[in-house]
Amino acid sequence: MTSTPAVLHAADLAHRRAGEMLVTTTETVAGFRVVRVLGLVRGNTVRTRNLGQDFLAGLRNIVGGEVTQYTAMLSQSREQALDRMRAEALALGANAIIAMRLTTSTVMAGAAEILAYGTAVVLAPEE
């Protein structure tokens, strides 16, 4: 059985299972200390609407209610941006991302960018 460095104990950072990484909007994590700041990491995706979604959205606008096609598209886009950010942090040797933010911007008519960014760090349990 191989030993794992203290900063990577699965028992201490349960969020790291199966390739997951702790991602938080806060600048601190209770019970842990930042032992190394690795820098800014980000992930993004740009998505465009399609004619079918626009037609359904127009109908939904008339009768009211949630436009589930857009909701699903935006949810998938956020996850893709987060996955890309996590991959960048992992490549730097991070076990967590702190101060994470999500932002959306229009890059052209009908296309939006979802950007996830934060600070890649190495956390260790407080002693």
TrEMBL record:
InterPro entries in the record: UPF0145_dom_sf, UPF0145_YbjQ-like
HAMAP family, sorted: UPF0145
Pfam families in alphabetical order: YbjQ_1 (PF01906)
PANTHER family given in the database record: UPF0145 PROTEIN SCO3412, UPF0145 PROTEIN YBJQ
Taxonomic source organism: Nannocystis pusilla
Alphabetized SUPFAM superfamilies for the sequence: YbjQ-like (SSF117782)
Family: Belongs to the UPF0145 family.
Full protein name: UPF0145 protein OV079_12970
